[in-house]
Design a protein that fits this description.
The chain is α+β, with helices and mostly antiparallel strands. It has helices at residues 13-23, 30-35, 38-49, 98-112, 127-135; strands spanning 3-6, 57-62, 68-76, 82-89, 117-123, 139-149, 152-162. A hairpin with a 2-residue loop joins strand 6 (139-149) and strand 7. Helix 1 packs across helix 3 (38-49).
Length: 163
């Protein structure tokens, strides 16, 4: 079983890159995914850790050997709720309970921050993630937005859970 702790600077790059490439294959243009590298993500994370205005918290799930097997990023939402910005699990471990373990830690942190609900955005075509969030009680609240990836507009659906 995985345990959860606060992320350190070097923890997340591989999980984020492999998570994106696994979760968004066939959804996000392959050209975008191909440009993602662990090295570039590591550089980005180093810059992120030095920001004085960092309002987010990053949590990692680690296995018994201390290896990072999952990552979640959360913080405040402009709508007076907590927001889950990212949740990724090592692709070979999806379905093992690591995502739920991270989500429980996210929910506890959101409550500690004084928020009564948490929201998140999921790519419309990411059916695996949508089923995961729906199984733990999240519901789509009708909000949608789109992001551009290499000239392709990809729609996201917002989910919400009252804690």
């Amino acid at each position: 079983m995985a345990t959860v702790r606060v992320m350190t600077e070097a923890d997340v790059a591989e999980i984020r890159v492999t998570g994106w490439k696994a979760a968004y294959a066939g959804i996000v243009p392959q050209s975008y995914l191909d440009r993602m590298t662990v090295e570039a993500e590591t550089h980005k994370r180093r810059q992120y850790f030095t920001r004085p205005d960092k309002a987010t918290i990053d949590l990692v799930a680690v296995d018994a050997r201390g290896g990072v097997v999952g990552w979640a990023c959360l913080g405040p939402s402009p709508t007076a709720a907590g927001e889950l910005y990212a949740l990724y699990v090592r692709p070979s471990l999806i379905g093992s309970g690591i995502g739920r373990t991270l989500l429980q830690a996210v929910h506890a942190d959101v409550l500690d921050r004084g928020f009564g609900s948490v929201l998140l955005w999921v790519l419309t075509d990411n059916t695996r993630a949508r089923r995961f969030y729906e199984r733990v009680g999240y519901t789509a609240d009708g909000a949608v937005q789109a992001d551009d990836y290499d000239g392709v507009s990809i729609t996201e659906v917002r989910y919400r859970l009252t804690l």
